[in-house]
Amino acid sequence: MRKEPDASREESKHDRAVKERPATRAAKGEIEIEAPVEAVWKALTDARELERWFPLDARVEPGEGGSIWMSWRNEYEGESKILKWDPPRHLRTTWEMHEGDQPPQVTDYRLESKGGRTIVRVVTSGFPTDAAWDDWVQGTVDGWAFELRSLKEYLERHRGQDRDVVYLRRRVPLGAEEIWKRMAAPGALGSKPLGAEPIFEAPPRQWTAVVEKLDGALLRAGSDPCATSETGERDVTLWLSAWGDAREHLPAIREDWAATLERLYPEGREV
């Protein structure tokens, strides 16, 4: 007579495995875009399309087992392995956060078609639960809020157009509150840089706006934890994405903003 498996023993093995698994947490984002799901999928999985709303450079080896490499031309670059490739509904990627015993970071993109529109849901999981990672988790939540809005602006207003970017960072030995205080002071960047109306405000971390006079360019100002500093420094960040003819104005804006950051944060350095 065949011996049936001991269910209680199997359950106890599962329970032990769950307990031994490192505790993690996740950062989420969601947005609805007036574009068909196929267009959104392409924007997430085609290298040139990615460069029009997300990283500065991208390479994609499509399909499960393939990879997506993205770069912001600094330490924020890397290759993610593709774990799930189910067009046009589900993409899952993973990358190792650190060498050693830290769990891998996994990002799930799920797309839902809704009458010619698409709902995009993103979950990045694998962050450790200790307080040292609080800044990174919140930064990822804020980051997805901005990047998903960039995806929306690109697909709804600039689909098929190449993008140029002003990307300035200044590393400073200051906390987020002091960074924000100086940035928002009279005579600094002003309450509405380039006349932009805010669409997402999360002081002292981030301020995002659409610049209508630059044909819907997307602006982000804020401060971010520094990935490479061991002294508690932060990066003051200014980012402006522009598409089409509006790109011709970016060199002058870059020069002006670089001088402004140097004036506001003289104790810092450009990175």
Model description:
With about 270 residues, the protein is an alpha+beta fold. Helix content is about 30%, strand content about 35%. The chain is built from six helices and 13 strands. The strands form two sheets. The chain has a seven-stranded antiparallel β-sheet with strand order 1-7-6-5-4-3-2. It is globular. Residues about 10-15 have low confidence and may be disordered.
Name some characteristics of this structure.
single chain; 271 residues; 13 strands; seven-stranded antiparallel β-sheet; 28% helix; 6 helices; alpha+beta; six-stranded antiparallel β-sheet; Alpha-D-Glucose-1,6-Bisphosphate, Chain A, domain 4
Structural shape: globular
| Name of the level-1 CATH class of the largest domain | Alpha Beta
Question: Helix/strand/pairing class, anyone?
Answer: alpha+beta
- In helices, the fraction of residues equals 25-40%
CATH topology-level name of the largest domain = Alpha-D-Glucose-1,6-Bisphosphate, Chain A, domain 4
Q: What's the alpha carbon Rg, rounded to whole Å? A: 21 Å
CATH architecture of the largest domain: 2-Layer Sandwich
| H/I helix tally | 6
In brief:
The chain has 271 residues and is α+β, with helices and mostly antiparallel strands. It contains 6 helices and 13 strands.
